[in-house]
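INTERNAL AUDIT FORM
Audit reference: QA-55
Scope: verify that the stored structure record matches its stored sequence.
Auditor: D.O.
Record contents follow.
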Amino acid sequence: MTFTGPRGQRQAATAFIFVTLVLDAMAGGIAYPVLPALVGKVGHTDAAHAAEVFGIFGTLFFVMQFFAAPVQGALSDSFGRRPVILISTLGMALDYVVMALAPSLGWLYAGRMISGITAGSISAAYAYLIDVTPVENRTRIFGLAGAAMSVGTAIGPAIGGLAGGYDLRLPFWIAAALSVLNLLYGWFVLPESLKPETRAAFTWTRANPIGAMSGIVREYPVLVWWAVVIVLYNFALIGVNSIYAVYTTYRYSWGPRDIGFYLSGVGIWSIGAQSLLLPLILKRFNDRQTMIVGSICMAVAIVAAGLASTGIEYAACAFFWIPGLVIAGAAINTLISQAVGPADQGRTQGAARSLNSIVGLAAPGIFALMLAASIRAGGKPLAGLPYIVSGILSLIGLAVAMRAPRTKS
């Protein structure tokens, strides 16, 4: 089925992509409010040990994504976006079931591994949006995609915090049911977006992580600059995102509901930033300028979050942190997509996510150890050190991005 149906069908297909991104975002959001309590229940851990366990969670997730993302990206370039997205949606439902049944840390680790595999569908989802969106509208559509994920970020923690107050397993069963419903919806309404004449032959060189990244960089040398930017930005963001539940639980004594409501507020604010603020920014600035504005806002706010002495101050930092991330992320995705041809969009997205996964192999563990060491060395006053490091890395990433060539290579 190719993307040639009536307008209503095309709109329904695009809606499915956004719903898939919502559920991908929910995967982390629904889990994090209850994971500290669930880890403590099944693993009998203290705060420092819980930080280390979360580091393992992050590492396992990104190990699996490292291998899965380029394979799924290459498959989507060769056989189309539709089958890759649908199979990954089925895997997402399986992941939620595993997490719901987990009687031990080993099962929770298995759930995070499945999450890493199914998260590779984001490569195909973004490639789908690139297929059907003119270049001049991509920053806007990436903003809308980010808004969809923010909906998941808002809904997931609310479900996790509220349902988790009754039963720590209930949020996962709810998410599994939603994933199955989305799979059925996509089966009937999702057309293929990649035309047969623009498809690339599948090879293991394109599908293996190292081959995918080295091959795309040889063909488009300008991507070397953006690879460095991705490494620095994602190391900073993956690091703090992997510890924030443990951090806020320890430093501010937040429980599952506190974390859930905070993350829901962040998600709602993200939607506002993507749907209202980003269009205003794009009217005044080009994509590169938009990236600079967003990056500075994000980096300063992350450092401020690490210095916040109360939970209210920490939450207030999100007022600036989240819009910065939204604006910078949409602009970077657009600049990368402009550097490659239509037959390489899926491979490029897959390679980018594999690079993201390489960073994820190290960042959660390093930031978890940094947090654990800070707790043991100085207690709460020193616990914000990982956030300060994250902000500095973001500024270094911005400096590299500003020197990236403006034309295709």
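Auditor finding: record pair retrieved intact. The chain has 17 helices and no strands.
Action required: none
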